[in-house]
Design goal:
Layout lengths: L1 E2 L2 H6 L13 H7 L2 E3 L5 E3 L12 E3 L19 E3 L19 E3 L7 E2 L10 E3 L12 E2 L1 H7 L5 E3 L19 E3 L8 H8 L7 E3 L11 H8 L5 E2 L2 E2 L2 H27 L7 H6 L16 E3 L4 H17 L9 E3 L4 E6 L15 H7 L11 E7 L2 E7 L5 E3 L1
Parallel strand pairs: 1-3, 2-4, 4-5, 5-6, 6-8, 7-9, 8-10, 10-11, 11-12, 12-13, 15-20
Antiparallel strand pairs: 13-14, 16-17, 17-18, 18-19
Helix pairs in contact: 5-6
């Protein structure tokens, strides 16, 4: 149990502020601006601190204080350090209207309250409160509204928070430290930090939402001016790319919603149709023509030519000739190299080409020489090997 005394106050000054020989203790304490009283096992402050009228910075962290000391005589305070004490409630701060930075981390506070009069408060550090199991840090709406216009830095890390919806009104925040909590809702996070247009630093490590897919990219899109996320700097290239991707996605989403409102599953808007990728018109291959087609001759005339050819071939077999010509009104049929299999007997009656092909032995049909015929009709010269079962078509 240590109570703050004048002697302890005098020893808590820096080496640059020493008492002069002709200076009284009261004058000396009144001249002090900084007091370093950390880690002194102090559990009670008393009235002696009221003598330090010009005090601007007070270090009282790492002590055993059970409550915030009464500091109504120290109205010039701008920075107050009370971390790692046993404080259970925020109180006795209304007279400190010039307070800029307030450090209350590592205490037993469960509600952020009692800051209604701190109109110039810029930084509030209330991280890692030692609360009973199952409890979480709560926010007084009236207090948050009172400091919303001035607060720039808020540290609420390690306070079992599963929602940050209550701090939505703090739109002037530059830094938000909410790591090591129980935050899971990405939509709520987007709604809260989306309105903090000055936010450039955000810490969310240690929350369940950090394990969601594309967590970092999504947070960068939510906070457009963010420079540091979870202690890592965001490059300008990454930010521009993600924002452009998000804007394009939103445009597509709006168009899809507008289309769904206009009609069902068909594209009726010509503007949407124009944006579809063009379909290439590949040329189709020409259709295949079955069999062999003799152009320019009617079927009947072609059959007559073929019949005459067969009769002439039968007459020329006795003379062992290999060519024949037939004149017609439209052209000349010539046989350039006619090779026919001979029978052993010399006295053979004439027979047609079809009879020769039909009478050939089955085993020798694949070994016979092909019959080569050349047709000339005017300027047309077509050659083809004619085998058995060949199909000849005519237009």
């Amino acid at each position: 149990m240590v109570k703050l005394t004048i002697d302890l106050i005098a020893r808590g000054t820096s080496g640059y502020t020493k008492k002069k020989r002709d200076e009284s203790m009261q004058q000396y304490l009144k001249r002090l601006t900084h007091l370093y009283l950390e880690d002194r096992c102090i559990d009670e402050v008393g009235e002696d601190l009221s003598m330090c009228r010009n005090l601007t910075v007070l270090y009282l962290y790492d002590n055993q204080l059970l409550k915030i000391p009464i500091l109504h005589h120290n109205q010039h305070l701008t920075m107050l350090y009370l971390q790692n004490n046993d404080i259970h409630k925020i109180e006795n701060l209304s007279p400190l209207t010039r307070l800029i930075k307030l450090y209350l981390g590592g205490n037993c506070i469960t509600v952020i309250e009692g800051l209604d009069k701190l109109e110039h408060l810029q930084e509030l550090h209330i991280e890692n409160q030692r609360m009973p199991p199952g409890e979480k840090l709560l926010f007084d709406p009236r207090t948050l509204r009172a400091i919303s216009s001035s607060l720039q830095v808020l540290n609420i890390a390690g306070n079992n928070l599963d929602s940050i919806k209550d701090i939505e009104c703090l739109r002037n925040l530059y830094q938000l430290h909410a790591n090591d909590n129980l935050l899971t809702d990405m939509k709520e996070l987007a709604h809260v930090i989306g309105g903090m247009f000055r936010l450039w630093r955000l810490d969310l490590m240690g929350n369940p939402l950090c394990h969601k897919a594309k967590y970092r990219d999504r947070v960068i899109v939510m906070a457009k001016n963010l420079d540091v996320l979870d202690g890592k700097e965001i490059s300008e290239t990454s930010r521009r790319f993600l924002h452009s991707w998000h804007d394009a996605r939103e445009v597509q989403k709006k168009r899809r919603e507008e289309h769904l409102r206009k009609g069902s599953g068909e594209f009726r808007d010509s503007a949407l149709l124009r944006e579809l990728p063009p379909v290439k018109d590949y040329p189709r291959p020409p259709p295949k023509i079955p069999g062999y087609m003799m152009p320019g001759l009617p079927r009947k005339q072609f059959d007559e030519i073929l019949a005459r050819t067969n009769s002439n071939l039968a007459e020329d077999t006795t003379q062992q000739t290999h060519s024949a010509s037939v004149k017609t009104r439209s052209g000349i049929l010539r046989s350039n190299s006619l090779k026919i299999y001979e029978r052993p007997s010399e006295n053979v009656a004439p027979f047609s080409l079809a009879d020769k092909i039909a009478s050939a032995p089955v085993g020798r049909r694949r070994q016979r020489q092909p019959l080569t015929m050349s047709f000339e009709f005017g300027h047309l010269d077509l050659s083809r090997h004619i085998q058995k079962n060949d199909i000849i078509n005519s237009t």
